[in-house]
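Milestone 3.1: sequence recovery, worked example.
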C-alpha cells in the first residue's frame, strides 16, 4: 500500500560515529543496513495504518537488537563494567510519556518505557524498582551477557587504562558513546518520539543522560514537533533541548528547520556535541548535528535514505 504523504519517519543511530578515515566499506554497509532495517520496520507500521507511537517503537527495537548501536544489545559499559540503559517514548497528541533509567534486563528498553507509560500510572522509573516492576509485568528479559559485546568491553578497558595513566583523551566519538532514536508522524497527523541508549563508555554507575528525560532528549507535541536527540546528554538536559525546539515553533513561530539548527548551534557553544532528528506537524523530517557525523536516515518518495557523515544520502528502494 503506498504511504500517504502525511507519513513521516526519521531515525538516528547516534552522533558518535566512527571517523571517516577509520570507516571501511564493509562496516559502513553494515551501519546503512541497520538503519535501513529500522526505517523499513517503522514505515511498515505507518503504511499499515499504524500509529506514530507504534512506528517509533518498532524502529527503535530494530536498532536495540543491532549490536552496532549503543542501545540494548551492544550498549556501552559503566566504570563498574556493568550496563545501565535509559529510554523514553512520548506521544504528541496527549503528551503521554514513559521513561526508564539505569536498567539492565529488558531486551528492548523502549518497550520498558512504553509499558511504564501505558500501565504503571507513572512517567519515569529507574533502577531495581523499575526492573522488578517490568519483570512482574511480563516484559521480555535477557541476561547481562546478551547485551555485552567484546568491542564495547575493550573500549571500557582502554578508557580505564587511559585514565589510570593520566594520558590525554584521544578517543573517537564512536568509542565514547551513541544512542538510537526515532520520530514519526502518522496518517492522523499524530507525532511520536522514542530514544534509547547505553549512555557513555565509562560513565559512573547511576549516571542518567538526556535520552529518558522528557523535554531534554525526547519530546513529542502534535502542535509543534517530535524530537529525539543524541550527544553530550548533560548539556542537552541543562538546555532542555527537545522542548526548547518545540517552544520556539509554538511561541516564536520558527520553522522546525530553523529551531533545530539554532538549538544545535547553541548547544555546541556549551560543549553540547551531538544532533537530533525531528518531524514537524506538517512537512519533511529534519536531521541536524554539530559533530563530524551522525548515523541517520529517513523515508521519502518510496526511498530509504541513510547517511553517516557529510556524504550524500545513500538511497535504496523501500
Ligand atoms: N545522549 C546520550 C547520553 O547522554 C549519549 C549519546 O547520545 O551519545 O546518555
Amino acid at each position: 500500500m503506498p504511504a500517504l504523504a502525511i507519513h513521516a519517519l526519521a531515525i538516528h543511530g547516534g552522533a558518535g560515529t566512527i571517523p571517516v578515515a577509520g570507516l571501511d566499506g564493509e562496516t559502513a554497509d553494515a551501519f546503512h543496513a541497520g538503519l535501513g532495517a529500522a526505517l523499513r520496520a517503522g514505515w511498515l507500521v505507518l503504511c499499515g495504518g499504524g500509529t506514530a507511537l507504534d512506528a517509533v517503537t518498532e524502529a527503535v527495537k530494530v536498532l536495540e537488537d543491532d549490536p552496532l548501536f549503543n542501545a540494548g544489545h551492544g550498549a556501552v559499559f559503566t566504570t563498574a563494567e556493568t550496563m545501565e540503559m535509559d529510554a523514553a517514548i512520548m506521544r504528541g497528541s496527549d503528551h503521554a510519556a514513559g521513561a526508564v533509567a539505569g536498567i539492565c534486563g529488558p531486551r528492548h528498553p523502549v518497550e520498558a518505557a512504553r509499558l511504564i507509560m501505558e500501565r504503571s500510572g507513572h512517567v519515569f522509573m529507574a533502577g531495581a524498582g523499575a526492573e522488578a516492576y517490568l519483570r512482574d509485568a511480563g516484559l521480555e528479559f535477557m541476561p547481562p551477557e546478551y547485551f555485552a559485546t567484546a568491542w564495547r568491553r575493550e573500549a571500557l578497558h582502554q578508557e580505564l587504562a587511559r585514565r589510570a595513566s593520566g594520558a590525554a583523551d584521544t578517543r573517537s566519538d564512536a568509542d565514547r558513546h551513541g544512542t538510537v532514536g526515532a520520530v514519526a508522524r502518522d496518517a492522523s497527523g499524530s507525532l511520536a518520539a522514542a530514544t534509547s541508549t547505553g549512555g557513555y563508555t565509562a560513565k559512573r554507575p547511576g549516571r542518567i543522560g538526556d535520552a529518558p528525560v522528557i523535554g531534554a532528549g525526547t519530546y513529542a507535541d502534535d502542535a509543534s514537533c517530535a524530537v529525539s536527540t543524541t550527544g553530550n546528554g548533560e548539556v542537552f538536559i541543562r538546555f532542555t533541548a527537545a522542548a526548547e525546539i518545540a517552544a520556539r515553533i509554538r511561541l516564536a513561530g520558527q520553522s522546525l528547520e530553523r529551531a533545530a539548527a539554532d538549538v544545535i548551534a547553541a548547544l555546541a557553544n556549551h560543549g553540547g556535541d551531538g544532533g537530533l532528528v525531528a518531524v514537524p506537524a506538517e512537512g519533511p523530517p529534519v536531521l541536524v548535528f554539530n559533530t563530524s557525523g551522525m548515523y541517520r536516515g529517513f523515508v521519502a518518495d518510496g526511498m530509504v535514505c541513510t547517511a553517516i557523515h557529510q556524504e550524500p544520502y545513500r538511497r535504496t528502494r523501500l
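Residues 277 and 287 are 4 Å apart (CA to CA). The chain has a mean pLDDT of 95.
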